[in-house]
DNA sequence: TCGTCAAATCCTGTATACAAGAAGTTTGAC
DNA sequence: GTCAAACTTCTTGTATACAGGATTTGACGA
């Protein structure tokens, strides 16, 4: 796995990335509906544990039960919904334990992205990453965490692409999305935004200088902080 | 992430593991049907690129199109099937490039399992792993690769559990299943079985002595070999 | 002979109907 | 008054019907 991918040129936007054809969970089928429900789960409009009545959802979204069921199955596959046979669907309840486990895997995957990015990324991509980092500067004072959250997500997504491993990119993006509400809360912890911004700087440098081990370690720590400082996070819920 | 999980006691069998409630893709809904189709895909009865006609499948499995559709959506979420809107489903075509990418991620995840196992596993679990390794001995001469394949899978699954990270265990098991047909082929490469067996021995030792870095490195190499020596594998197709 | 266009056919996506199981309620007995 | 059992109601899981888009087939023209 040391060869450089021939065609790193991706025209995908960050909001609608060109996914690999095998992208897990990227079922392009009545996608708007899935995304609408997903949005309500991610934003906590539909709280964890809430029952997802098929008939009720069907009425609310003005469709029949069939597409609702199919959407719920997709969301269950993504881990956002729990399907209890013959007893209906509920919004998945994530325990602190599970959350820590997920952050742990996330840290490992991002670390690997960093390692591969340091090994394979082009100068052009590195400039792009730096630009994304610098774009965060204005909102790194912690006054507008939502804006920083968005730009931070952008920064990481560029990093994923730089791994030149579309499968890895897809897996880590899925996890990023799934952890979204918790990452968002995390940024409200005191000083987290400014620290995050500083850490990004070192990450950019490590990748630019091709320091694979350092890039991996920095990214692992960068993500793990969110998992370890977990008391703060749970307290803010 | 250095704390040890309090309850490592798992009564799950290897064939039907007790999955975490958030287990991605573990939608327990008409599961037999999903598994039957999955089996045909994994065993190449349904070859990559083959059209999956809903009506035809419905007739063949003696159900209506509805459960078939729901099964296909689940399989698409798992990456085994590609759903092309309004144009039907086909068995996912995995390019060598994608396969290498998947093996790369697999190597990283298994390496992390090894690291965590070295850190957290109990003496009891380590004995279990050793037993699973020793059970491979009889079929490590390469004369019965299918039997070794099964025992090898068992060995790795015990390892996953030893990470004490149910989410990681689930993710890596999914990938293991998805790469199954290719791993199977890999074992037919000359000397691979005997080498694999020897590598397991070092892995067991590294974990037993709590050497996290070594366990991770050994496992990474152990898996990467399968991805890297891919030329041999493709030639055998 | 090959390419193009059109009609017919097929298949998917969605709605709806129905049956079976789960949950909730009421009634009866102790 | 409390507990249990049976009944009612609700919800899920599956079958089926139908509409609209995709594909295929056939004919016509270059």
Q: What does it look like?
A:
The structure is a homodimer of 237-residue chains. Chain A has a three-stranded antiparallel beta sheet. By secondary structure, chain A is mostly helical. Chain A is elongated, with a radius of gyration of 19 Å. In chain A, 63% of the residues lie in helices and 4% in strands. Chain A contains eleven helices and three strands, in the order αβααββαααααααα. Chain A folds into two domains: 61 residues, Arc Repressor Mutant, subunit A; 140 residues, Up-down Bundle (Four Helix Bundle (Hemerythrin (Met), subunit A)), CATH 1.20.120. Chains A and B meet through helix 3, strand 2, helix 4, helix 7 and helix 10 of A and helix 3, strand 2, helix 4, helix 7 and helix 10 of B. Chain A binds a DNA duplex (30 and 30 nucleotides) through helix 3.
Topology summary:
Two copies of one chain form a homodimer.
Chain A: H1 31-42, E1 51-52, H2 54-60, H3 65-77, E2 81-84, E3 88-91, H4 96-120, H5 123-136, H6 145-162, H7 166-178, H8 180-186, H9 192-208, H10 212-228, H11 230-235
Helix pairs in contact in A: 1-3, 2-3, 4-6, 4-7, 4-9, 4-10, 5-6, 5-9, 6-7, 9-10
Chain A binds a DNA duplex (30 and 30 nucleotides) through α3.
The Cα radius of gyration of chain A reads 19 Å
User: Which two chains form the greatest contact, residue counts included?
Assistant: A-B, 47 and 45 residues
Report the sheet-strand fraction of chain A.
under 5%
Number of strands of chain A: 3
* Number of alpha- plus pi-helical segments of chain A: 11
CATH class of the largest domain in chain A: Mainly Alpha
- Write down the CATH topology of the largest domain in chain A: Four Helix Bundle (Hemerythrin (Met), subunit A)
The total number of structural domains of chain A is 2
Judging by the overall fold, what is the CATH architecture of the largest domain in chain A? Up-down Bundle
In this structure, how is the largest beta sheet of chain A organized? Answer: 3 strands, antiparallel
User: In terms of structural class, how would the helical and strand content of chain A be classed?
Assistant: mainly alpha
Order of helices and strands of chain A: HEHHEEHHHHHHHH
**Strand line-up in the sheet with most strands of chain A:** 1-3-2
- Quaternary state of this entry equals homodimer
């Amino acid at each position: 796995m040391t060869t450089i991918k021939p065609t790193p040129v991706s025209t995908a936007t960050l909001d609608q990335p060109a996914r690999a054809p095998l992208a897990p969970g990227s079922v392009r089928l009545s996608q708007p509906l899935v995304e609408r429900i997903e949005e309500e789960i991610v934003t906590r409009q539909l709280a964890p544990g809430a029952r997802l009545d098929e008939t009720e959802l069907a009425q609310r979204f003005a469709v029949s039960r069939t597409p609702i069921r199919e959407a719920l199955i997709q969301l269950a596959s993504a881990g956002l919904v729990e399907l209890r046979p013959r007893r209906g669907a509920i919004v998945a309840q994530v325990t602190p334990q599970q959350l820590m486990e997920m952050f742990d895997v996330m840290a490992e995957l991002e670390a690997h992205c960093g390692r591969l990015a340091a090994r394979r990324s082009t100068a052009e991509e590195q400039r792009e990453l730096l630009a994304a980092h610098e774009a965060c500067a204005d909102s790194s004072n912690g006054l507008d965490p939502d804006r920083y959250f968005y730009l931070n997500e952008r920064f990481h997504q560029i990093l994923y692409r730089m791994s030149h491993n579309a499968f890895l990119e897809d897996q880590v993006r899925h996890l990023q999305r799934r952890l979204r509400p918790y990452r968002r809360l995390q940024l409200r912890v005191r000083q987290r935004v400014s620290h995050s911004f500083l850490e990004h700087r070192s990450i950019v440098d490590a990748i630019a200088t091709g320091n694979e081990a350092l890039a991996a370690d920095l990214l692992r720590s960068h993500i793990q902080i969110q998992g370890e400082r977990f008391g703060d996070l749970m307290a803010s819920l």
